Amino acid sequence: MDRMPGKHIIPKILALIMAAVLWIYVMNEQNPPIETSLQVPLEIRSLSTTLAAMDVPDEVKVKVRGSRSLIYGLRPQDVKAYLDLKNATEGKYTAQVSATLPNGLELLEITPDTVTITLDPISSKKMPVEIRFTGSLPPGMVVGKVTADTDLITIQGPRSLINAVDRLVATVDVDGQTTDFTASVPVTPLNKESKKQEGVLLNPSNVTVNMNLVQNVTKKMVDIKTILSGELGPGIVLKSITSEPDKVEISGDPKEVGKIDAVYTEPVNLSGIDKNVDREVKLQLGENITAARSSILLHIEVGRSVEPAKPKLP
């Protein structure tokens, strides 16, 4: 019987220590720690729904260290890089880039580790859609009346991008068409350089356009006449009103064109005019009638009335 049970403890402890050291040595030799860098998409987290983040880098570089087996199995989607914008407000904002890693990996470096972005308020507005045509119709055919299922499109997105939208365009391909047809076409937001404005949402994003094609078209030059509404303020008189151009070429069904001697503008409201102004005014066209232009420029000249001089009393 062993009367000294503790005499074997120290050798056992030493054996465990040696085993641990040997295991670490073997692991370092067989599966040593190595480093690697990955290009990781940069996510936005906790941003207010009333703000949009602008000028955000698409990716950042994340450098990590881990065992060779972990590194060899590592994929870019296993690493998450993000900006926490929970308390961010409108304007320029510098944020720290953070990252989450799989267990067993050590984060060494994020490049860049901070980014400066712009936080823009989300806004919306309504704009009319302009219908355009592409392609060629057969000889003797022209576009007659054109209607769309909606007049106004809602644009939503960062305020600065919405303000950059100059017009909305829907283009219909009429190539080879010989009869009336309907087409669903996408609406494209264009900036002042006539390039597509990215970063905004349209609702609806498509419009349904009803195309009326007219055969045996007659063309004719007619006068442009202005329709006025409202009244000038006290003491203001209308001196002249001229249109540029003063005539327009119309085309359409021969019977309809033959009845037209002049094309009228939409009513021009004179209320509130107290100085010379230029106004772009749309033309009112009848059914199956088209014009070389849909609007004209009006030059409105006003002045102040002169009260007659009172006779001097002897």
From TrEMBL:
Gene3D superfamilies registered for this protein in UniProt: 2.170.120.30, YbbR-like domain
InterPro entries: c-di-AMP_regulator, YbbR
CDD domains: YbbR
Protein name listed in UniProt: YbbR domain-containing protein
Pfam families associated with the record: YbbR
